[in-house]
Amino acid sequence: MKILICVSGGIAAYKIPDLIRELTKRNHEVRVCRTQAASHFVTDLVLETLSNHKVYSSLLNGLPSEETLRSDYPIEHIALAKWAEKILVAPATAATLSKLACGSCDDLVSTVVTAHTGPVLIAPSMNTAMLNHPAVKENLEKLRGWGYEILEPDSGSLACGEEGAGRLPDLTRLVNHLEAPAPSSSPFSNKRVLITAGPTRVFIDPFRFLSNPSTGKIGFELARELSRLGAKVTLVHGPTSLKVPRSLHQVFSITTPEEMNETVTRLFPDQDVLISAAAVSDWIPLKREPAKIKKETQSELLLKFKKGPDILRNCSDLKKTGQILIGFAAESDQLEKNALKKLISKGVHAIVANTVSETQGFGDQESELSFFSINHSTPFKIGPAPKETLAKNLVHHLESWINEPIHGQISL
User: Fold this and answer.
1) What is the model's pLDDT at position 274?
2) Better-scored residue on pLDDT, 65 or 33
3) Could you tell me if residue 412 is inside a domain?
4) Is residue 165 located within the same domain as residue 263?
5) 245 in the same domain as 146
6) What is the pLDDT of residues 345-386, one digit of tens each?
7) pLDDT category, 280, cuts 50, 70, 90?
8) Each residue of 199-250: pLDDT tens digit?
9) Do both 200 and 67 map to the same domain?
10) Residue 315 a catalytic site member
11) Domain span at 326
């Protein structure tokens, strides 16, 4: 594969030579384009020696010196953009992100990336406070909405001496993302995928509700990854603070289990795949008080509940030949036993299960998943890893799983 690495001026630039070495060992052809500031952190000599190609750094260099670039595209930034099959911007500093998001094109890196029509991977790396600044977050969301793949930074010790998110993803993550198949080769390309995410709320009066700590992170990341692979993703989500990816086909925001049930069962007949990752309330109060329940009027409060809608079972009853149903199960104990029971009772093709306890589960940055399917007696383990990575690994497993011969009756 022809990979162009665009290096900007962050301390993490010192890690790029190791990345180049690994990619060339895997028989990828690597070229390097850098900002002026990047030269303060890693020298051209090192980058050229490891990539075996000159380093491109100036927008006004004139014609490329190499015949392979000069032959078809005499303008350097266009030649590089056309040559690359994939571009990685790493480390992507706040300044580089701003230029890419604004389309300023006042240096070679921003110009080449803007001129490139293929996949672009962006690996932000900076101080945690900078990463969390509204301007940086807005620029990342804008780039993500345009179809660029944003690699979430790792957490740990930063060069400034602080602890937090902002480290360049490790070598393995970078290589895995670069070697991921192109969207057009994915079995999910142009398929209609319905994903549920986040919690629901059940109200006992106009002021109070019962819910759970689900953030919706896994569901949102699955939606983002499948959309990147060319799927037409419809997301139905409960109350969450997460920003919705702009690349999705349709988005529906709901609050209650009844609203989610109505929306999902209405949309499901036109879908190829349902991934039910939402943490839907299992129990609903028998009665919702019309006014605020005053504590002065009673010394204790007793509530009675009824079962809420079984969305996954309802969709299973509606499914047609070829539709794939994948459920999620959060369990506090006997994970395998309960996941297999749900796999059978819901009439679905697979269950993705995770353990929720006092020390792990909802809201954690990292988690571990177990994938149970109708075709395998033992689960496939995914993680522990950050939820962004979990989602990508799960989708990668789904791509191979739905293509297995044994899945002839439900394959896409």
Assistant:
1) 97
2) 33
3) no
4) no
5) no
6) 999 999 999 988 655 556 566 788 999 998 877 889 998 888
7) very high
8) 999 999 999 999 999 999 999 999 988 988 889 999 999 999 988 877 789 9
9) no
10) no
11) 184-407
pTM (2 d.p.): 0.66
Same domain, 221 and 157: no
Are 224 and 175 in a shared domain? no
> What CATH number does the domain containing 222 carry?
3.40.50.10300
Given 6, 33, 105, 160, the catalytic residue: 160
How many domains does the chain divide into? 2
The answer to whether the beta carbons of residues 342 and 329 sit under 8 Å apart is yes
